[in-house]
């Protein structure tokens, strides 16, 4: 499908996993895509080359979502190259576990998770909004953990994703008068480096879904593409679970 012809997309954390699939899908739909990454430069460069070979413009920017100045610079570089942003996808995120009663918990890791998953999303939206016009889209990748905590050790992570869902509702109200929609996709278990379908932990996770399996990155990207398109023009402030029925 070509639902995003000549749109400009900006995706955080696009070098691997769900983010890379989103970048590919938005480009397949006709968008030019800028994306950020932190460590995976070879994957980022390969993805830029892949998109360029299809005729789409692509830009990979090293920018840590935990660093507000880096986020602002990445948005500025995107606007300098492409002129505006039509679709913002907040995808970059960390998953750091630990129970609240663990005296040896790594509090710096907790702070880092908050900085990337919450402050980074808010900073990206603040930086990008001046360049998003009527018909624009803001789509964040939350987690079903934003609505439920099915096992111990994930309180900090699920709290960050609940914050993203709450921000989504607030931003939908803030930006509705400008014709910008704001939604959050809550993935369930998706096979990536963060949550491999081959881990010891995976069978129990798959068994907890109605469909009895992990999700694929393309299944999240397809939902992003739909929300980014004109077909989703009356959806805003919504939380959309893409989880194989994990939440059913
Ligand atoms: P991966 O760890 O597989 O990939 C993460 C991507 O984000 C990489 O491209 C990575 O780039 C980038 N990234 C990580 N930290 C930063 C940062 N500080 N600044 C910029 N980019 C960064 O994760 P997934 O693809 O699995 O997850 C993507 C999103 O989906 C996350 O928000 C996650 O919380 C959410 N999610 C994932 C689920 C799953 O089961 N996989 C379930 C529910 C939600 P680099 O390699 O360069 O560091």
UniProtKB/TrEMBL annotation:
Keyword terms: Oxidoreductase, Plasmid
Residues annotated as signal peptide: none
Record domain Ketoreductase: where: 7-193
CDD domains: SDR_c (cd05233)
PANTHER family listed in its UniProt record: OXIDOREDUCTASE, SHORT-CHAIN DEHYDROGENASE/REDUCTASE FAMILY (AFU_ORTHOLOGUE AFUA_5G02870), SHORT-CHAIN DEHYDROGENASE_REDUCTASE FAMILY PROTEIN
Family: Belongs to the short-chain dehydrogenases/reductases (SDR) family.
InterPro entries, alphabetized: KR_dom, NAD(P)-bd_dom_sf, SDR_fam
Protein name from the UniProt record: SDR family oxidoreductase
SMART domains (alphabetical): PKS_KR
């Amino acid at each position: 499908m070509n639902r995003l012809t000549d749109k400009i997309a900006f995706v955080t954390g696009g070098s691997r996993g769900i983010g890379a699939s989103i970048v590919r899908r938005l480009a397949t739909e006709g968008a030019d895509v800028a994306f950020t990454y932190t460590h995976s430069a070879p994957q980022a460069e390969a993805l830029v080359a892949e998109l360029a070979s299809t005729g789409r413009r692509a830009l990979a920017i090293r920018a840590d979502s935990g660093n507000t100045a880096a986020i602002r610079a990445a948005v500025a570089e995107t606007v300098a190259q492409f002129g505006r942003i039509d679709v913002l996808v907040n995808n970059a995120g960390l998953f750091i576990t630990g129970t609240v009663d663990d005296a040896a918990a790594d509090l710096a890791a907790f702070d880092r998770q908050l900085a990337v998953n919450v402050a980074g999303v808010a900073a990206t939206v603040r930086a990008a909004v001046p360049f998003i016009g009527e018909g624009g889209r803001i789509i964040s990748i939350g987690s079903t953990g934003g609505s439920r905590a099915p096992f111990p050790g994930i309180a900090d992570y699920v709290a960050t994703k609940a914050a993203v869902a709450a921000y989504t509702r607030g931003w939908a109200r803030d930006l509705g008068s400008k014709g910008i929609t704001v939604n959050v996709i809550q993935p369930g278990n998706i096979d990536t480096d963060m949550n491999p379908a081959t881990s010891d932990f995976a069978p129990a996770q798959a068994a907890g879904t109605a469909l009895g399996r992990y999700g694929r990155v393309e299944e999240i990207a397809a939902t992003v593409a739909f929300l980014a398109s004109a077909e989703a023009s009356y959806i805003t402030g919504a939380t959309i679970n893409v989880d194989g029925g994990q939440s059913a």
